[in-house]
Amino acid sequence: MVCLCSDMLPDLYLCACDKSCKKMMNPLSLCLLTVAISVCVTAQGIFYPFGSEAGDTFNSREDDSSSPRITLNISFPFFGREYQQIYVNHNGDLTFNEPFSRITPYEFPAHSNRDIIAPLWTDIDNRDRGSISYQQYTTGDVLHTATRDINSYFPNVTFAASWVFVATWDRVAYYDRTATETTFQVVLISDSSLSFVLMNYGDIAPTSHPVQIGYDTINSTHYGSLRTCYPNGTIDIVNLNTSSNINVLGRWAFVTSLQTTNFSCEHRVISAVYLLPLSLNNTPRVCFVFPFHFEMY
Question: What share of the chain is helix, strand, coil (3-state, %, to 5)?
């Protein structure tokens, strides 16, 4: 049992497991500490509901296939275009006008005639392992979660989600390597005016197949690729669950409406203890990679 304590401020301590730390803290200082410290969410806890329990619709078990045309309950604005349908493609991407089965990703910007969102575009094969599923929401707790998330990540925006679309690739394999398991998710969020995309990553298996992550629009008027976030231009897919541009382990968030700023790689990797300045008494914010709980004694 290991006790993780923070001595950033006098007499303030936070413990992970071992109650031996209880002698070093008091209820008042612990309350102050919870204000000063923001705890990062682990990759296991960032996924929106998915699977049978969430009422998802499942794609067929076919290589290089796609979902049927999915009619959206509310149109989704994507960089100036409004879409009322979407396709969840097996090889790790979403398209709007037609299904897309290409196994080898192209570079962004591609200046193509296609809008695409690619949480992990590569050669995926779900025939023998894993599942691909999707669900959309216009009411309920998922909308509350999305609203909270967007207002947290983009504090300059006043936002209330009216629609959420979740697509999940759960423990899928790469082509010709059925023993591999890779889990990721893409979440589209909108209030009919603003739109956002979250990309969530669990365990990602290594692969020799080319990989693309990001988004691209028709004629590449707007685009972004995680390749630009790495010095050698190669995405470190195995460690995607410890990467982020919003200080949440395993999650990347982007604005995908015309009000967007440029594609951002800021804070792409969160280490075991990652410090960011806060205005509260110049106290740093500490993010822990591993989950923990605390008790008051």
Answer: 15, 35, 50
Say what the alpha-carbon torsion angle 174, 177, 179, 185 is, to the nearest 10 degrees.
Answer: 0
Nearest of 133, 141, 118, 137 to residue 74 by alpha carbon: 137
Q: Six-digit token pair at 72?
A: 């959206």
Separation CA 276–CA 268 (nearest Å) = 13
pLDDT in tens, 69-102: 999 999 999 999 999 999 999 999 999 999 999 9
Rounded to an integer, what distance in angstroms lies between the CA atom of residue 193 and that of residue 160?
A: 10
What is the tens place of the pLDDT at every residue in 183-226? 999 999 999 999 999 999 999 999 999 999 999 999 999 999 99
Task: Give the amino acid at 7.
Answer: D
> What's the token pair of residue 47?
């996924």
Six-digit token pair at 97?
């006008």
Largest CA distance in the chain: 64
* DSSP for residue 64: T
Helix (H, G, I), strand (E, B) or coil at 145: helix
CB 297 within 8 A of CB 24: no
What SS3 state is found at 295? coil
Indicate the pLDDT class of residue 259, thresholds 50, 70 and 90. Answer: low
Please classify residue 104 by burial: count the beta carbons closer than 10 Å to its beta carbon, then call 0-12 exposed, 13-18 middle and 19+ buried. Answer: exposed
